[in-house]
Amino acid sequence: DWSSDVCSSDLRNLDDQAMEQFDKALAIQPNYVQALSNKSFVYLQRHAYALCVQYAQKALVLDPSLGSAHYNLGVAYFALQRYPEALVEIKKAIKAFPENSEVYERLGDVYEAQSRNEEALAYYRQSLEVNPLNTSARSKLGDVYSQEGHEKQAVEQYQAATDLNPANIPAHYQLAQHYEDNRDWIHARHEYLMIIAYDDRQAVAHRQIAKIFERNDEMGQALYHWEKYAALNPADTSVKQHIDDIRKPLLTKKQAEQMAAFQSQLQEKQAIPTPTPVPDKNNLWTGPKTVDN
Question: What's the whole-model pTM score?
Answer without folding.
Answer: 0.71
